[in-house]
Design a protein that fits this description.
CATH architecture of the largest domain: 2-Layer Sandwich
Structural class: alpha+beta
Radius of gyration: 35 Å
Strand order of the largest sheet: 4-3-2-1-5
Shape: elongated
Number of domains: 3
Distance between the termini: 127 Å
CATH topology of the largest domain: Alpha-Beta Plaits
Helix content: 40-55%
Number of strands: 8
Strand content: 25-35%
Largest sheet: 5 strands, antiparallel
Number of helices: 7
Order of helices and strands: HHHEEEEHEEHHEEH
Amino acid sequence: MSSRMNKDQKRRTQANTRGIFIVLIAGSAVTLWADDIYQYILSLAALAAGVAIALKEFFLNVGGTFYRLFAKPFSVGDRIEVNGMRGDVVDVGIMSVLVMEVGPGNLTHNYTGRTITIPNSTFLTTAVSNENESAHHEGDFILHSFEVPIRNTPEWKKHYDTMLESAELCCEAYKEKAFDYFKKVTDKRQLEMPKTEPRINLKFKSPNEIDMIVRVSAPVARRGTIEQEIIRTYLNKVHK
């Protein structure tokens, strides 16, 4: 029994000695090469920071792609406005979205002939205005608004009535289709049914000028054309 205990004690001593020896060697190595190890760690940290900075835009664009896929603020064919850039979405990718510019600004619905590439990272920090709302096909309808200024004179009512008559005349062919479309959309989404017939709201642009804000239901593909038809009809009636 005593012999066995002596052997166990020797093994413990040897194990403890090896541990102390390894610790001493490791401590000596750290002491001798501390500066080199410190410089190596700094180099790794600098490299990691450089990679993070270099790939920052890439990761933000990928994050914007996931946001676009899950939030679905728009799709191909929608007319959007982001940071003052307005146009129709023609292609979406992992890094960016390609838009066919419409403008200038909100003044017209014509293509300018230029394309805009918007990085996907933009959608993480900037609100997106989608003019098409739920409309994605040519047969779909949208509520389209535009402004017409008039002088603040006793004849404002004549201009108001003439504009409303012009809008009703130009939209008569789409009246029933627009009602059916918005009825279907609102029932599906449990929303309140909007007024689909032409409407005009008034606001003062200045003490001497009034803005007629005209809202009509129009096929998504013909909103610009219908707007121009209404304005031409209004001008012909006013100056007749």
